[in-house]
Each structure stands twice: as C-alpha cells, then as structure tokens.
Design goal:
With 238 residues, the chain is mainly α. Helix content is 69%, strand content 0%. Helix 4 packs antiparallel against helix 5. Keywords: Cytoplasm, Phosphoprotein, Receptor, Repeat, TPR repeat.
C-alpha cells in the first residue's frame, strides 16, 4: 500500500528540491488517476514503480537539526495564515534583491510569494470575490517575476505569463509592455508592434518609452537583414 503511494510522494519531494510547490500539476484525485490524466509523473523511474510496485529500502542521513523559528519556512510548509503574513515580507526581500542587481535571486523570491498565494487561491472557487482578491495580489508579483525573466533572457516564460495576465485583465499596460519586449526579443515583430500599440492606446504618456523600444527593434531588424544578406550571398556564391 505504501509503495503504491510512494511515486506521488517522491514527485512532491523532487518538486520541493527544485524549489517548486509540492502539489504543482496535481489535482484532487488518487495517484493512479493522476497518472492516467497526465500519462506520466514526469519521471520514468516513478512511472515504472507505480505500474509495478516493488519493495523499497531507504537510507536516511540527518544532515542538520534546525530549531523551530530559526529558519524561513518554504511556502509549501506554511499554514494559510503564515502564507498571508509571509507574502509582503517575501515581496520586499525580492524588491531589495532586484535593487542590488541580484536578479535570479529576486525572481526566486517573487516565485515563492506567488506560490503562497496560488496555494491559497486553489482553495477558493474560481471567480469568487476571495479568488479575485488573491489573483489581484498575484498579478503585480507575476509582473515583477516577468521583469526578472526578461533580464535573464527567458523570453518565452515572459510571453506565457503576460498572456495569462492579459487573458484576465485586458487593460494591464505593464503586461502588454513586457510581452511586447519579449516578442521583440524573439523576432515576433508583428506581435511586438501590436503590443506596443496597445500600450500607447492605454497610456499615451508612455510614448517616449515605446518609441525607444520600436527604434531598438527597427535597428535590430536592419542589422539582422544585413547579416542575412551576407550569409545568403555566401551560400549562393558557392
């Protein structure tokens, strides 16, 4: 019985080791239903163990002992009240790290704050006042996270997150602007121009900033066109 449950427990532990929510990607059902729904737990060894349970022997080594209150809990280990109390503090820590130029570390803090709120949001009915209130707290954190990802050149993650925000909040200027920059970075020229146009429609005062981004995109396009001409000339001259 315990071996059958172990693959789901192991997946949660692996999520924790990666700094993720242990329940990420799960819904409220048994392990077998999870496997059938997702076709895989994401790890071949766990898939095989769940299909064909085998006796397991564990060697556990205690590395250190920490007293309660002497360390910052991971979001998954907090109570609901602790999560709500922790979010502003984690957000502040992320902002300070960002100001110090420690962008990946700041992104990790924003991620932890988002995880706290997402965990609470999962317990609410989508669209309910409490769900919406939590979502409105998640949005600025997610935009901060996207800013970090822009600087880390992880553009497709920015595209995904900003699009998810805009699916719910069509007038979010910051989401359009960050998505426009991400589109420009991956050469989605028409999409970038459309997002920057939307920024101007929503907030004309941002025209100088948008104009700068469009000039940068045009300069990169001209440079790319020159490089392509040289590259293709070399190909056809052979």
């Amino acid at each position: 019985q315990h071996v059958v449950l172990y693959p789901m427990v192991s997946k949660s532990l692996r999520n924790i080791a990666a700094g993720k929510d242990p329940l990420e990607g799960q819904r409220h059902c048994c392990g077998i239903a999870q496997l059938h729904e997702h076709h895989s737990l994401g790890y071949a060894d766990l898939d095989e163990l769940q299909k064909n349970p085998q006796p397991l022997i564990f060697d556990i080594e205690v590395l250190k002992v920490e007293e309660p209150g002497s360390y910052q809990q991971d979001p998954w280990a907090m109570t609901d009240e602790e999560k709500l109390q922790a979010v502003p503090l984690i957000h502040k820590e992320g902002n300070e790290l960002y100001r110090q130029g420690k962008v990946p570390e700041a992104a990790s803090k924003y991620y932890d704050a988002i995880a706290c709120l997402k965990n609470l949001q999962m317990k609410e009915q989508p669209g309910s006042p409490d769900w919406i209130e939590l979502d409105q707290k998640i949005t600025p954190l997610l935009l901060n996270y996207c800013q970090c990802k822009l600087q880390c050149q992880e553009y497709y993650e920015v595209l995904d997150h900003c699009s998810s925000i805009l699916n719910k909040y069509e007038d979010n200027v910051k989401a359009y602007f960050k998505r426009g920059k991400a589109h420009a970075a991956v050469w989605n020229v028409a999409e970038a121009q459309a997002d920057f146009a939307k920024v101007l429609a929503l907030d004309p005062s941002l025209r100088p900033i948008v104009a700068k981004e469009l000039r940068s995109l045009e300069a990169r396009l001209r440079e790319k066109d020159k490089e392509d001409k040289v590259r293709f000339k070399g190909i056809f001259s052979q």
